[in-house]
Write a structure and sequence with these properties.
9 helices; single chain; alpha+beta; globular; about 35% helix
């Protein structure tokens, strides 16, 4: 069935340049004036050079560091982190031995990824999200000194978030900005669930973070059902994405 056309918000992009900042006016120029409208944005942020994750990620630029969850604890943060790399052990050791990391505990080790729980002395990785009253949506992904993350909020909350982000003086780029109801009208509940689980488990990444069998077990369905649902959902997302740009 052909999806019903919907009005989209054109992505706003800002060059990652020290002299360039995204103003609130440009950020929401195409947004609906309704302050209760729910928006979802994905951003890329250049990390400060003085935090541990910048040092580790730039030392291993081909590795992917994924913050699966994090909870502020005073001046520290309790975090659950994943490393994905051809050889994740050197990256994991660099994290474990960093002076800003304490109580490092390995929970899983495989050929291409490790998962560990630890406390980080520097919580500014996502503290500005908490300070703006927007809880971070995990996973937060860091590669070669840059962090990608998503936030979902009303337009009014986004305006407050934009102000908080500008005050940090950090370089960033808004990758996408869409109405959440676009996604809701596009996919069935089951398709949305399957795609979200697949994305969280790294099924669409290269190399894959999980197999189709592992994904089907997580969804509680057989392999063929998982495959068909994901293919149909992915096809609708791709069709909608391409249709917007015609």
């Amino acid at each position: 069935m052909t999806p019903t056309p919907v009005q989209s918000i054109a992505p706003v992009r800002v060059a990652l340049d020290p002299t360039t900042r995204m103003t609130r006016a440009s950020l929401f120029a195409d947004a609906n004036a309704n302050k209760e409208l729910m928006l979802r944005a994905r951003l890329r942020l250049v990390l400060p050079e003085d935090i541990w994750v910048h040092e580790v990620s730039t030392s291993f630029p081909d590795a992917t560091l994924r913050l699966l969850t994090g909870v502020p604890m005073g001046e520290r943060a309790l975090e659950l982190g994943e490393v994905r790399a051809t050889d994740p052990q050197p990256v994991a050791e660099a994290i474990r031995s960093h002076p800003d990391i304490v109580d490092y505990e390995t929970l899983y080790t495989g050929d291409r990824r490790t998962i560990a729980q630890y406390e980080a002395d520097e919580r500014s990785l996502y503290a500005f999200l908490w300070d703006s009253s927007l809880p971070p949506e995990f996973p937060i992904v860091v590669e070669d000194g840059e962090m990608e993350f998503e936030v979902t909020a009303t337009q009014a909350q986004f305006e407050a978030f934009g102000s908080a982000l500008e005050e940090t003086g950090r370089r960033y780029e808004l990758l996408t900005l869409v109405h959440t109801e676009e996604d809701e009208s596009l996919l069935t509940d089951r398709q949305r669930e399957c795609l979200m689980v697949a994305q969280r488990r790294g099924y669409f990444e290269v190399p894959r973070g999980c197999t189709l069998v592992e994904l089907s077990e997580a969804l509680g369905v057989d392999k063929s059902t998982a495959s068909e649902t994901i293919r149909r959902g992915t096809a609708r997302v791709v069709e909608q994405f391409l249709t917007r740009r015609e």
